[in-house]
Give the backbone structure.
Amino acid sequence: FPALKGNCQGGAVIKETKMQNSELLESFIQEAGEVMTGLEAGVARLQATPGQPFALEDMEQLSVLAHRMRGTAGLYGYPQLSTLSGLMERLLDARPNLEGEHRSRFLALLNTINSVLRGGLASLQRGGSDRDLGLIFTRQGGTALLQGLVTDAANASFNRIAIDGDTSTNDSFV
């Protein structure tokens, strides 16, 4: 997002310099990194107590951290990171009391969200954006079908677009 300074001189808003934007990104990455460390440690605590109900304190702490990541990412202009953090927050706020396979899947989902968030931060550090982040949910057995569809679409479209005589190597499908 185009960051603007809050100072007005003669009624004009002064745009921040590239260096200031870089400082904002560095500040966000540092704060988000600290939150991610807390999220990862919190999920690890939940995993360390198999067969027991999730500790309410751990769930609340994780929800607060996910909320913090959601708000901070949104404030800094990273909507995908904010949306994924919001998903995690809603899952944690539901305070599910899960057992067995359902508990394992819930923890796996939290770990997946953490991995995607961590990957998004790494992309930002490399100068990328968070626009290519996301999760796809399928019903049981849907993963194989989805993978087949993705493979077919990629095979039919990859390296098929030519612009000014050059074949694109960055094709995608929707």
About this structure: The CA atoms of residues 15 and 36 lie 30 Å apart. Strands lie at 4-9, 12-15, 162-163, 166-167. The first strand starts at residue 4 and ends at 9.
